[in-house]
Amino acid sequence: MTLDHAIDRLMAFALRRPEARIWGGRTLYADGSLNPGSCNALQSLWSIFCRTTGLAVAFSGSAFFNPENYGSWDRSD
User: Fold this and answer.
1) For range 2-24, the mean pLDDT
2) C-alpha span between 70 and 56 (Å, rounded)
3) Has residue 12 got a pLDDT over 90?
4) Which of 48, 23, 49, 26 lies closest to 37 in space, CA to CA?
5) How far apart are CA 66 and CA 60, in angstroms?
6) Structural contact between residues 67 and 46, judged by C-beta atoms closer than 8 angstroms
7) What is the mean pLDDT of residues 2-11?
8) DSSP-derived secondary structure for 11-77
9) N or C end of the chain: which has fewer CB within 10 A?
10) CA angle at residue 8 from 15 to 16, to 5 degrees?
11) What is the value of pTM for the model shown?
12) Phi first, then psi: what are they for 33, rounded to 5°?
């Protein structure tokens, strides 16, 4: 399901920011809250190490210890 004018808003944003060259929408749960697991970075040896040792969970808000899940990215805007 797409929310009101979501595609139109995405296209307008893409036209304003052509330098990004990739755009996407936000994935929400049925209750409308943000699904933070919908966007992930590529795995690296460091991110795998952090995930398997529990550092990524212990410091989930850290871009350093949770790089795969964009730990410090505020997706609320």
Assistant:
1) 91
2) 10
3) yes
4) 26
5) 6
6) yes
7) 90
8) HHHHHH-GGG-------B-TTS-B-GGG--PPP-HHHHHHHHHTHHHHTTT-TTT-GGGTTT-----
9) C
10) 15
11) 0.56
12) -80, 155
CA distances from 36 to 6, 21, 60, 71 (A): 18, 22, 11, 9
Structure tokens that stand for 67 in this block:
């790089």
Q: Per-residue pLDDT for 76 more than 70?
A: no
Domain spans of the chain, in order of start: 1-38, 40-77
Partner residues linked to 34 by β-bridges: 28
